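Hi U.,

Before I forget, here's the chain from the pilot set. I'm dumping it here mostly so it's searchable later in email.
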Amino acid sequence: MCKVIPACLVLILILAIPIVAVSQNNPNMSFFITSAGSGNGANLGGLTGADAICQKLATSAGAGNKTWRAYLSTTAAGNQPAVNARDRIGKGPWQNAKGVVVAQNVDDLHSDKNKLGKENSLTEKGMQVNGRGDNPNTHDILTGSGPDGKALPGAMTCNNWTSAGDGSARLGHHDKQGGGDAPNSWNSAHASSGCSQANLVSTGGAGLFYCFAQ
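Structure:
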């Protein structure tokens, strides 16, 4: 036991410092999966609302000093052209909350060389999505995109991320495994059964999506 109380306090503080440091996320984080969606299925409030969710979650993790964008494509509607997810996220490189570089650039991200998957596709909290940590029973991620990160023809974006009812969304598998017509694809594995929260859950998701810092 310590006989001198101030000395004990100093010792406790010194021992606690590395524990705190290890528990904190990487301040240079530039990629994550949202630990939560909008709570209203695929209705994210459009791209603007989705970007705001990315920014809010990044800020909560100490990385809000960057400009964050949701990895989501939209289809052409009215006078608005289609938007490709790959064109929204900057040039890279991108690293997760643990400091692992998951892709060097946009082409690398959309190639078989990326480091995405269950181990490295982490939430802003540095947790795995499917297995340990946040949302343990889901691996479907909203993208509305093809394997190349571009918008797909047809209604694959739940009315450009404003619908929690009719429609469907193209989904990726963050762990690169499961069912669907392209089960190993992180961004274009299969379509959802609908746009509501219940539809997304029944398909294997929770309304989560990828965020990248520009």
